Amino acid sequence: MHKKASWTLPILLFLLSLSAACSGDGSAGSPSGANTSGPEEASGYPLTITDAVGREVTFDSKPQRIVSMAPSVTETLFAVGAGNRVVGVTTADDYPPEVEAVERVGDYRGPNVEKVLSLNTDLMILSFDGATKGYAEDMAEKTRTKVVVLNPKTVDAAISSVGLVAKLVGEREKGRVVEERLRDELGRIGEKVAGEPKPTVFYEVWGDPLQTAGPGSFIDDAIRLAGGTNVAADTGEAYPEYSKETLLQRDPDYYLAGRSSGVTVEEISGRPGYPALGAVKDGRVTIVNDDLVVRPGPRIVEGVREIAEAIHPKAFD
Amino acid sequence: MDETGGKGEGGGKPVASGFSGVLLALLAGLFASVTLATIVGPVWISPLTVWKVALHEATGFLRPDWSAAEGQIVWQIRFPRVLLAAVVGAGLSVVGTALQAAVRNPLADPFVLGGSSGASVGAVLVIVGGVQFFGIYSLSVAAFVGASVAFVLVLALARSPGGHTSPLRLILAGVAASYALSAVTSFLVLRADDPEEVRSVLFWTLGSLGGARWEYLTLPSAALIGGTALLLAQSRSLNALLAGEETAVTLGVETDGFRRRLLILCGLLTGTMVAVSGTIGFVGLMVPHTVRLVVGADHRRVLPAAALSGAILLVWADVVARTAISPEEMPVGVVTSLAGAPFFLWLMRRKRGAFGGEGG
Question: Given an 8 Å threshold on Cβ–Cβ distance, is B135 in contact with A208?
Fold first, then answer.
């Protein structure tokens, strides 16, 4: 009988449809996913922005009590100096260390309305695929908070959204500085790898069953920006289960694996068939900090850099 | 009910001669399936190369004139995977057959007594909770322990104050335990911080043979052979159980103790299969029924025929799972259910009767 099938699976499927947070499949409007317009006066307010789902939101003054519903947004708020105004975050938030003290008001599936209401907030920033226009409007009404949806799909859009978040919270100048620093850094990485041949790269999200990062994921974009070619670029989704045979046949130059699955280089090298991989034979298996590459926040360029250093060791000597 | 075993006199008659033909055909079918399945895959390797690699690896003959990658694909990926599919398919079908008799319910499958929800709790603890006590075997060990604990729990719960274990009590206890354990799984999944972990749990619960390695074959094969032999030796009692409690008692079967031993055996077998493949649905439910429709209800026929048919079915389901959307893979449980259900319904509508316990 199928109690599990009739119960757990629908829940899982439901969660998956809501999730894929910070990853991405779907569409976005402008590169940053949102636009702003407003008078160019010193305070910057009133400020009207159009968010990633096409909603116009107007702020009369600087938001003082902010709820961030994505680790990437939280990191951005702290990076632009608005960290002391963040009053609510998700259970997944762990950076910067100061965030430990902030109240948890939800997870990657969305906020707990009662908790948000109790915090008397004036801005909530959502950034996950399930955050549709209807969802955002409903949430704004229920929590009596201005809701802005971000949905960057590429590393470049993630950098732009740093500037946007900064503008929203009245830290335009700091935002510009951070954005500039990120673009410079990305540019430097690009220059270093520009003349190099493009190695093929396989990125492991999970080992058993083997799961990788395909088109539409930040990892895929990060591999490209780091001067590599994702061998799973021809898959149909962001995080597909991948064929080991095809992996062995394509024999990627480099094999990267996300740290959060707890995998080790030794474990990977010992898997059936893996000894035939060039990456295993020549010691080109690297564990990377996947928090950096799956979060479209201010550390994403560090993630690109980590991948670039792994796959172009000579260029970064 | 079927003419041979259904009325409870099974065991007396010799297995009819036509059956050896069926068995031979199934054996040949399994051999052909395994052979064909190893030359089919997302990567094209010529059949000649596949057989040369196999011969080389098995006997040491032939100098390799194929690439290292081809050798590894054939011998380290495909062969263990195809053979594991055969073993797991056979194991699930045998367990399903025995359980349908043990609880006298046509809806029984290897997971009826909480096995899959128990295994899922174990797997989720590893995937989401990061419990890693046994290195690369953590997931398998956790799934096995989860399934076994669920089984023991259900057996204990099903026991009446008088020490009696009826089929109805077993099923109810199984249902209750499954709900409770599924709730634990859901809770753990909801606590996950990371959508990729949720996806990994989903892939695991839908079943996959992608993790196959040679080491994974030893225990399940031993369990399958030993378990099937034990069950075959008990065919007469199984036939009696399927016919009904009273018939069984009349025929001198000590039903309570027999059922208990039977369930423990099934629990161990299920746990072993789940540990290496996740929870692959429908095989253990459908294969025994299908086989009964063809060969009758006598367990001396049903058990071997179900083992072979289940093996063939899962080998082909896995071929589809690994090639249909290449280079991506599909969970094999999706294939078994999607392809198996229509076939089964078609067969059911064509034939009447012969369902385990139906009208018995």
Answer: no
**DSSP assignment of B37-80:** HHH-SSS---HHHHHHHHHHHHH--S---S-HHHHHIIIIIIHH
ipTM attached to this prediction? 0.73
Angle at B204 between CA B203 and CA B206, to 5 degrees: 70
Distance from CA of B127 to the nearest CA of A (A): 8
> Mean pLDDT across the stretch A264-271?
92
List the alpha helices (DSSP H) in A226-289.
244-250, 265-269, 278-281
Q: How many residues does chain B have?
A: 360
Q: Is A125 helix (H, G, I), strand (E, B) or coil?
A: strand
Torsions phi, psi of B244, nearest 5? 140, 155
At residue B347, does pLDDT exceed 80?
no
Q: Please say if the pLDDT value at position A266 is more than 80.
A: yes
State residue B317's pLDDT score: 95
Query: Touching check for A5 and chain B: CB below 8 Å?
Result: yes
Angle at B324 between CA B320 and CA B327, to 5 degrees: 120
CB contact under 8 A, B329 and A270: no
pLDDT above 80 for A193: yes
Question: How big is the CA angle at B32 (ends B26 and B34), to the nearest 5 degrees?
Answer: 105
CA distance B303 to chain A (A): 20
> In this structure, what are the phi and psi dihedrals at residue A239, rounded to the nearest 5 degrees?
-130, 70
Domains of chain A by range and CATH?
A: 9-186 (3.40.50.1980), 190-316 (3.40.50.1980)
Bridge partner list, A48: A37, A58
> A293 with A307: CB under 8 angstroms?
yes
- How many CB contacts within 8 angstroms connect chain A with chain B? 173
Domains of chain B: which residue ranges? 28-347
Q: Are A59 and A170 in contact (CB under 8 A)?
A: no
Q: B230 Cβ partners below 8 Å, 6+ apart?
A: B265
The residue type found at A147 is V
How far is residue A50 from each of residues A68, A178, B4, B14, measured CA to CA in Å?
Answer: 18, 22, 75, 81
Q: Measured in Å, how far apart are chain B's first and last C-alpha atoms?
A: 7
Q: Does B259 touch chain A (CB under 8 A)?
A: no
Contact B281/A at CB under 8 A: yes
Kindly report which listed range (A39-43, A234-238, B150-154, B336-340) carries the lowest average pLDDT score.
A39-43
A216's tokens: 């539409």
For residues B237 and A70, give the distance between their C-alpha atoms in angstroms, rounded to a whole number.
Answer: 60
DSSP letters along A74-110, please? HHHHHHTT-GGGEEEEETT---SGGGGGSEEEEETTE
Q: Which fold has domain B28-347?
A: ABC transporter involved in vitamin B12 uptake, BtuC (1.10.3470)
DSSP single-letter state for residue A36: E
In this prediction, residue A25 has a pLDDT band, given cuts at 50, 70 and 90, of very low
| Chain B residues touching residue A210 (CB < 8 angstroms) | 210, 329
Q: Minimal CA–CA distance to B15: which of B298, B356, B305, B237?
A: B298
